[in-house]
Amino acid sequence: MSMKTKTPPANQITEGIIWKQLLIFFFPIVFGTFFQQLYNTIDTIIVGHFLGKGALASVGGSSTQIVNLVVGFFTGLSSGASVIIAQFYGAENERAVQESLHTAYTFSILGSIAISIPGILLAPGLLRWMNTPSELIQDSTLYLRIYFAGILFVFIFNIGSSILRAIGDSKHPLYYLMICCLLNIILDIVCVVQFQMGVAGAAAATFFSQAVSAALVTRKLMKSDGMLKLSLRKLRFHANVLKSQLRIGMPAGFQSIMYSLSNVFIQTALNNFGTDTVAAWSVYGKLDAVFWMISGAIGISITTFVGQNFGARKYDRVKKSVLVCLRLDFLISVVLVLFLLSARIPLFRIFTNDADVIRIGSQMMLLITPCYMFFIFIEVLSGALRGIGDVLVPTLITLGGVCIFRILWLIGVLKIHPTINAIILSYPVTWFTTGILFVIYYLYKKKRSLAG
Q1: What's the rounded Cα separation, in Å, for the pair 417 and 323?
Q2: What distance in Å separates the CA atoms of residue 109 and residue 159, rounded to the nearest whole number?
Q3: How far apart are CA 406 and CA 432, in angstroms?
Q4: How far is CA 273 from the centre of its chain?
Q5: Do 194 and 186 touch, CB atoms closer than 8 A?
Q6: Per-residue pLDDT tens digits of the chain, which is 452 residues long
Q7: Is 115 helix (H, G, I), strand (E, B) or coil?
Q8: Which of helix, strand or coil describes residue 378?
Q9: Is residue 331 a contact partner of residue 67, using CB atoms and an 8 Å limit?
Q10: Angle formed by the axes of helices 344-351 and 18-50, to 10°?
Q11: What is the CA radius of gyration of the chain?
Q12: What angle do CA 312, 316, 320 make, to 5 degrees?
């Protein structure tokens, strides 16, 4: 029989004024993601100024796409655990929360081992397959191998943070990221600038800072007095829970893989235009990450919010929260787009002084940034659907609208008009198409499953 507890959700997600509760939950996530992105950005700034554009391209080009492919897949898988835990937590089912916690942690440990070894061995082959410029292969391989050696820490922190957020605690992951950001900056300066370790120094700084973040989030869970008390002796798979987590997480992970694969195809196409283009795309990726930082925080917020309220059977609250999130995301995105467009050249100069890199990157930003508005519907609606456990159809929509269509675009357009702009336009075209499909499906689903 399931054990119950009268302990309410951590920040009263199932009660109170919706927009206030969403913002209370949203801000720690977005600031946490900001600090996570900040220490990645510091790597890029230090590498770009002290090691040159070749090292900059090595750290941020094909290497980044491969890392995003792997980490994105696991993050998608971990979303299954966070949704299940959010629903059980909203229903106050302590036994199910405990089983979900230990199953998720076990999966993250074994999964990291299964990915780390092949990643280290296959790194050079993957880089060559992506048409990475020959002068970048050596540094890119070194960076990737160090990163894959520490992939356990990445997985542990991601799963631990997603579990804490699932119950409404978005503050502790923020604190841990702030600590690790500061540590990474210090280690970057020491390893790259003082000891002149090159790309290996940037990778080593990331390795050790991620290890600290994994230790902190694990310690938090082990010292918890509530439903989420982690015990290393209880780490094991619970078959029914694992099945439920994979049912939600696998489509989300597969969706992330397809996103990343389409980005790999784009990176491969851009690699053919030389080091300047690869470096420009690397810098743009750091600036572009500001949008994904905010969008991702909103996606996590709506998934957790919907998950807990759906578990508590508060369907009217579920529907209202989706509208609030759409408005919130729209307002933030408008401000962000205006800022990025007006400050694009000074922003690029933070990373590099190379005129060609700045020129190419600025053009990329002009083409993509205004179209962020299309992605709002994809992020919010897919997050809401994931919160109620509906992942199959959203995955198929994403697979068709973003991934397959984007790859077909690249194949077709590059034969007719092989330019950088033709490659970049694949983003707004596929976001617009997929956004429309998500709106149609969500309206259908709201009538069928969320009829109050």
Answers
A1: 40
A2: 10
A3: 12
A4: 27
A5: no
A6: 344 444 444 445 767 777 777 777 778 777 777 776 676 677 677 777 677 766 766 666 667 777 877 877 887 777 778 878 877 887 788 888 899 899 999 989 998 998 899 999 999 998 888 778 788 888 889 988 998 999 999 999 989 988 888 777 878 988 998 898 889 888 988 888 888 888 888 888 889 999 999 999 999 999 987 788 899 899 998 988 888 888 878 877 777 777 777 777 787 788 878 878 888 888 888 788 788 888 888 887 888 788 778 877 787 888 888 888 899 889 988 999 999 999 889 988 888 788 888 898 888 888 889 999 999 999 899 888 888 878 788 888 988 887 888 888 888 887 887 888 888 888 899 999 999 999 999 888 877 765 55
A7: helix
A8: helix
A9: no
A10: 50
A11: 21
A12: 115
Distance CA 29, CA 296 (A): 9
Sign (positive or negative) of CA dihedral 383, 389, 394, 395: positive
Retrieve residue 96's tokens: 């199910």
| Six-digit token string for 237 | 């798979």
Per the CB < 8 A criterion, the answer to whether 79 and 248 are in contact is yes
Q: Which of 125, 80, 46 is nearest to 248 (CA)?
A: 80
Quick one: tokens of 147?
A: 């990163």
In three-state form (DSSP H/G/I as H, E/B as E, the rest C), the secondary structure along 279-319 is HHHHHHHHHHHHHHHHHHHHHHHHHHHHHHHHHCCCHHHHH
Fill in the amino acid letter for 308.
Q
d(CA 190, CA 201): 8
What tokens were used for 241? 């829970």
